Structures are given as C-alpha cells and as structure tokens.
Amino acid sequence: MLETLLILVLAPAFTSGAISLEREKQTLELLVTTPLSSLAVILGKLLSALVYVFLLIVASIPFASLVFAFGGVGPEDLVRAYLFLFALAFGMGSVGLFVSALVRRTQVATVLTYVTVLALTLGTAAVYVFWTSVSAPVNAFGVPDRARAGAPPEALVWLNPFVANADLICGTSSSGYDAGCGVIAQVTGKPYFGAGLGASPGAFRTGEGFDVRCTEEGCMERPADVRAPIADPLTAGFPRDTFWPRSGLAFVVTGLVLTLLSTQLVSPTRRLRLPRFHRRPTGTRVPAPPGSSGSPPPAPPPPARGSDAAA
Fold it and tell me: How many domains does the chain have?
C-alpha cells in the first residue's frame, strides 16, 4: 500500500512536464526535426521518466522480503504485488505524459495530472460506495445481492489501485482472513472464508430462519429446515486473483492508448487519417467516337535528321 502511494505521487510528477517543458523552452521544434519519429520521441520521454520509478520499485525488493519472517506470505504473493506495481507505474506515467502533451504549461499539466489521479482513486471509490448504498440491497451478511439489483459495475474501480491491493493482501495474514477479503467480496460478489459466506462451494451456513449455500458465483438462501453439513474449515478458502489481474491489464491498456494519443498531439507528426470513400457518378459514360474532340490527337512525327533534313 505504501509503495502504491509513492508510485501515485512520483510517476505522474516525472512525466507531467515531459512535453510541456519542451514547449516552454522552445526546444520541441528542434526535437521534431531530428530523424526520430513522434512515437520514438514519446516513448523515449516516457521510458526515461519511468526508469527511475522502476529502479525504486526494484530497490524495494530486499526491504519487502522482510515480510517472509512474519509468515502467511509466499514468494508468489510478492511476485503478484510487483507485477501490479510495474503496471501501475506505466499507467500513471502515461496519464502524466498525455496531459503534458495536451497543455502548454507545466504547472497546469501537473495540477491536471494530480486531479486525474485523485479522481481515479478517491473519486471512483466515493462513486462506488454511493452507488452501492442507494441501489444495491445487501443480504444477511452485508454483501450486495447482484442477482436482485443493479450493483455498480466492477469496471468502475478497475483503475483504483487500492482495490487491487485489497485483492493482493487478501489471505496473506497469519489468520487466513484479512479486511481486504471483505472489500473484494463486495466488489466482485464472490464469497470468501471468514464472513459467513462460507467457505468452499457447497457449504451451508445457518442464519435466522434460513441457511445460505455458497458457490463460486455467490450465495443462495434456503429454508432453515433443509440442513447440510458445513465443509471442513481446512478445505475452505477464498477466491484469489479475482480482481488485480483485470486491474493491472486495465492500467496497461490505458497506458498504451494514452501513449498513442500523445503521439498525435506532438506536431508535426504523421496523424492518423481515416479512409475517404469517393462517390462515383450514377450515370453511364458513353465512349467518344474515334477522331472526335474527346479522343486525344495523334502524336506528331519525329523530326528528320541527316540527309533527310537536307533534302
């Protein structure tokens, strides 16, 4: 969570002045006269700004490996976390680069970049909570019932890195349950072990007058007179990797799209052109007869040379 917060601060700061600073110094025209293409210029600016962020991420690996001493965290959990951090750095860096290519002043670009970052983090979380509270009824365990009401779409928080962090830390504590599991269960609508949503598929939890049968898709209420044994807690678990892969892919796709759009904002450049379809005349064309004005005149004979010219 701390490294995610640092990336949200550093990555946009390093890229928000990449293009606008060249405009202020009036060196962008000299840069575009080089043999480099606009895409090469944009990629060079992006990678040169993010290489320091990537270096900081790699340098934190020895410090992050201290979590192995507390238990509950394996090497695969650390690999998942760092894959997401790299995707987050690329996405946030592309946001700053796009805003820098869009405006002319570095101060304005910096402010707009951080406003966008706040909208993707605090803004999407606030909209999701408000949408859930006004439209999605919850079941007996406090999880939105997606089958009976229009819960907010999961894609609304794909670009919120803290929700992806909740998926990454779910189940890494020594007790096997973390508060992040509750967040992911509300976002994805899938059950998890530890909040009465059971456990493994096919398990039953007893409520007041009803039982709840949990599967990978959700939980279903049944009358209390229908009883079934609860699954062995040792075989119970929680869904892993249900949100952060989609969130990481969303950051990568967003970064690629914004990088391509940034190349179209650097002038001069080879802009994307849509194909034009010319409309043909509807009438039929009648060929002109030979010798008429419509046919080309015959070519004149070549001039004579030598004895023929003297004669």
Answer: 1
